[in-house]
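User: Second chain of the day. Same drill as before.
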Amino acid sequence: MVAIVIIVVLVLIILWLISLYNNLVRLRNNRENAFANIDVQLKQRYDLIPQLVGSVKGYADHEKEVFQRVTEARAAGMGAKTIDEKMSADNALTNALSGLRVTLEAYPELKANQNFLQLQGEISDIENKLSAVRRYFNTATRELNNAVQTFPSSIIANMFAFKKEAMYEIAPEQRADMEKAPEVKF
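Assistant: Same format as last time:
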C-alpha cells in the first residue's frame, strides 16, 4: 500500500515537472512566433524603402548621406539572422528613417507629390503595425521571462537552458530624442 502511494506521488511529481517544461516550451515558441510577426512587418518595410528613397531622390539628390544611411540600415536589417541582431538593425533603420523625415521637411513640393504621399501612408501603416507587434512580442517575452525566473519553473528552466530574453526596446539615441522637449514653430 505504501509503495502504491509513493509511486502515485512520484508519477504526479513527474507529470507536474513535464507540465512546467511544456509551459516553458510554449512560452518560448510564443515569443518566437511574436518575433515572426515583427519579421513580416519588417520585410514589408524593407520592400517599401527603395521605393520611398527612389521617389525622394529626384527632389533631394544632394542628400546622399541620408540615403546612404537608410540603404545601409536596410541592408543590415535584411542580413540580420538572430532576434537580437534584427532588433538592433531595426533600431538603426528607425534612426535612419528619422533622418530622412527631417530631410523631407526641406522639400514642400515633395510632400505634395501623390506617389510620395501614398508611399508615406504605407510606411506609416507599417510603422503602426510594427508598434503593435513589438508590444505583443514584449508581452510574450515578459511571460517567458516570468516563467524562467519564478520558482519552481526556474529549476526546470535552468536544467534545460531556458534563459531570460531581451525585450524589444528603443535605441539609446531614440530615447535621448524622446526625452527632449518638442520644438514648437509657428
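The longest helix spans residues 2-57.

User: Great, on to the next one.
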